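User: Please predict the structure of the protein below. I'd like the answer in structure-token form so I can feed it into my own downstream comparison script.

Assistant: Understood. Taking the following sequence of 94 residues as input:
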Amino acid sequence: MSSAVQVSDDVLGSVQARLRRIEGQVKGLQRMLAEGRDCAEVIQQTAAVRSALDGVALELLRAGLEQCVRDEVRGKSRDRRALDRLQRAFLTLR
């Protein structure tokens, strides 16, 4: 069995939309720096980007854990490696 965690098309679409917004925020950061904007404003926007990326990671983690639990309940117990990988990923978010 594969230890890859799959996400639904809905989650995938949502995450991709969020990443496109984050991409826009990063481009905005680049413009702010090029324009010589106030350091505090740049730092505030950087924190917003970091928070948005954390949100993407948490959404993927939530979807993966939901899949693992659903598979367990349905008796389609997945290879334990998928859950182990999700747990390790969670710990990197600290």
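That's the full token string. The chain has a mean pLDDT of 86.
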